[in-house]
Amino acid sequence: MAAIWMIVAAAAALRLYNLNWNSLNSDEAFSWSISNKPLLQLLSDSFFLRQDPHPPVYWLVLRTWQALAGSSEVALRWPSAMAGTIYVALIYVLGRMLFSRMAALAAAAFSTLSAFFVWNSQDARMYTLGGTLALAGLVCLIGGLRTGRRHWLAAYFVFTALESYTHIAGSFLLPFEGLAILLYLALARNAQQRRAGRGALLAIAAVGLVYAPYALNAWRASAVASIIRHTPAYLELVAAVMQRATLNTELHRDWWWFGTVLVGGCFVLGGAGAREDRRLPRGFARAFVMLFLFVTLAVIAVLSVRQSVFEPKTITFYGAAVALGVGAGWARLWQWHKPVASAAGFALFAALIYGLSFVWRPGFQKEDWRHAAAYVAAHAGPNDAVVVHLEYYRVPFSYYFRGRALTPFGSHVNSSDEVGRGFAPLLGSDNIWLVQSGEFLTDPDKLVQNWLALRYGLGTEQFPQSIAVRQYVVQPAAASLPAAARPLSIEFDSGLQLVGSQLDAQQLSASEQWLHPPSNYLHVRLYWSSTRALLAEPVVQVMLEDGPGNQWGALLQRPGTVRAFYPLARLPAGTLLRDELDLIVNPLAKPGTHKVVLRVTNADGSALLANGQSYVILGEVLILP
Fold this sequence. Notes:
By secondary structure, the chain is of the alpha+beta class. It contains 23 helices and 13 strands.
């Protein structure tokens, strides 16, 4: 027993480790939003598949849990982490019922280290809970078939009904379970086993009756649903499940074939030659695991002819079949040829660890609404407007953003005139912050972004994972220098004046992994004026320099900046112009104090002197180790 407790402890540690490393993505934020609806509205929307079209069990569990633990990222993900830990324990129990202790331990170890199962155990969604309920139901089903006791079958009914009302994918297992029960009856050796089989048939029939109302609603909803999702052909579907269960190809796609061949080989060996528990009819356990995977995938393939139902996360419901088959196959291989089994075990372990290494690696994180909202909150002013597009994404953004986020457009926009009408009430703002994700699906011509880009200067743009944050400067003329700016009185030979400057940080790291890896940005705001009309447009350069004058950062050149719309050469005398710039920092910049240096030149490169100097020090920043 010590071995399984160690495996379960390792599973818990992996599922709780860095639980809040990822931001909540849009689906997780919807879990938070929906679970906090008024109870009757939640039940009605869930049953009739409105908004986030999933059954109510997970929403109710999360709602109850939040009343006890709050709605932080860790709190929202805790139920999934605990369910994921129990999932591993149930794989062991089911494996022990079907096969040997060694097979059960191998299956539990596989699921413990699987990047796919770890990833989904840190996801505030219903998939891991549903998969755990499915496994609990299967444990009770096998217990009922082995003993004939009614309490096992009653528990099977409860867990399977709950599983089906957690996610529709739970119902995809019912055909496999029905076939498994019929196979058990066909293989039954005595009257007790036949009675147990008939009792199991009654239990699954009762599940079908309880689930039928929701199934009917789901069938009707699928007739009008428009889901952009690809369902692979059947054999590709089998290979995809093998890949994801091992390496989690949502995170990494290299060497997928290695995982497919290795895992598939062990699985086939388990289905063909694994040693079974003697209390079950001969051949039943091996067939059970094969039916578990292949019949369930066949159901998905058939249903997808009408409307795609394959969602990678639903593999949590039937991916346990992969773990069980691999565990049984490896255990049989160990009995046949220990050196070969050792090599296969090492290869499996290496593949699992390789996949696991991507779970918390920068560049492979979820949608990063946390950093998107934090950047806007830190840089938006009181007279700025924040627009989220698509409308769907206001929920995850608002989970982190405490200000007002607007959604003037629906999911689809059809013309620039429609966009203009949406932005019209916001044109008195100093800046419009446009926060976008997924717009390539519903606004492929970039009507929303281009409407702003053709009219207003781009102040900054940041790129958290799967998100774009852009600042458009609507009112660049300032009435006076803001209190947060550093007053300056710098006059260049041409009559150009630098009235003030503002740096958005006094210290920062040279590299950055969340907004625009690998380099960090220093945002610089300059306030320009002039005493007379300039003869030509000057060239503005901002650099980051160390003490000896080595350059460790430079102005990020972008089209469509403020000065593209408001050239300094056409700046009316006495007007105060706010200029927004980003300085990109070399990620190899050495720690220590660096100067932010401004140089203004003519087009031919000759310096415009400022109070007799060829440069102006705007301030100092500390580059952190």
